[in-house]
Design brief:
Layout (H helix, E strand, L loop, with lengths): L2 E7 L2 E6 L2 E5 L9 E5 L2 E4 L16 E3 L11 H6 L5 E4 L1 H7 L3 E3 L5 E6 L2 E10 L7 H4 L2 E7 L7 E4 L7 H9 L2 E7 L17 H11 L3 E5 L11 H11 L4 E2 L8 E3 L2
Parallel strand pairs: 3-6, 6-7, 7-8, 12-13, 13-14, 14-15
Antiparallel strand pairs: 1-2, 1-16, 2-3, 4-5, 9-10, 10-11, 11-12
């Protein structure tokens, strides 16, 4: 069964798995907007989406790592949610969003179906920064997607997280073929050196434990609070000399991924 991924921007991706169409962390607002994330943090959106929401087409489910930061769900993305058949997110997020939103705790699985296509989606643990930042960062989750014809292993989407023992647990429970990592080293002046998503060192650690065939970096461009881009990630992996392929998706164009 073919997997096609179109990177729309930040952590927003269109996943087409056979007949199933999924959307992750939808952000569709135009560039130039300034957002407050709470507790004195905030950011400016530097680039708009490469695909407009009206051009996305029908969506079977949205995989939403969390609902309370606009770099993962902005105003236009929130307006899009009712068009999807289901929205899978955190339990607190589902309580806030209501409607078609379903809360998943880590290791809880559901099946998504479209025609002959059946995909098992399992929520995975994520930590959006150090424990001290939990009141600001809130709850997040990642996802593992499995289907019968996978040969290399499952598809893992980290969600907004730093590297911590929860990533090790994913490696213990699943054979991962492709890991989609939310990078960018998100930081804010008011919280100093604390980071809220993986940097290149975290990505290397994740690659060592997950041992995927491919790593797809996302969530590293388009916002002012991202402090680390493609060059730092490529440099880190070059120094680590890991037997893994970095796959940088072109924005706005579908890419076929082998699993």
């Amino acid at each position: 069964m073919n997997l096609s991924i179109t990177h729309i921007g930040t952590a927003a991706m269109l996943l087409e798995i056979g007949a199933l169409r999924l959307l992750t962390d939808p952000v569709f607002d135009p560039a130039g907007e300034r957002y407050s994330f709470g507790w004195g943090t905030g950011s400016t959106k530097l680039s708009g989406p490469t695909i407009a929401p009206e051009d996305i087409g029908p969506i079977d489910a949205v995989l939403l790592s969390h609902d309370h930061h606009e770099d993962n769900l902005d105003r236009a993305g929130r307006a899009f949610l009712p068009q999807a058949k289901r929205v899978l997110t955190t339990p607190p997020g589902a309580q806030r969003l209501r409607g078609n939103a379903e809360g998943l705790r880590p290791w809880h699985s559901v099946w998504l179906e479209a025609g002959p296509t059946r995909v098992k989606v399992t929520a995975t643990p994520a930590r959006h920064g150090a424990l001290i930042t939990r009141p600001l960062a809130g709850a997040t989750i990642g996802f593992v997607l499995e289907w019968e014809s996978q040969r290399q292993g499952a598809l893992y989407i980290s969600g907004d997280t730093i590297y911590y023992h929860g990533v090790d647990q994913v490696a213990e429970r699943f054979r991962i073929g492709v890991a989609v990592l939310h990078l960018g080293k998100a930081r804010f002046p008011i919280t100093g050196p604390l980071r809220y998503t993986m940097d290149h060192r975290d990505a290397v650690k994740a690659a060592r434990v997950l041992r995927p065939q491919q790593i797809i970096p996302i969530h590293y461009e388009g916002w002012k609070h991202f402090s680390e881009g493609r060059a730092a990630v490529e440099g880190g992996f070059m120094r680590a000399r890991l037997p893994v392929e970095l796959c940088w998706l072109p924005l706005g164009r579908p890419t076929t991924i082998k699993l």
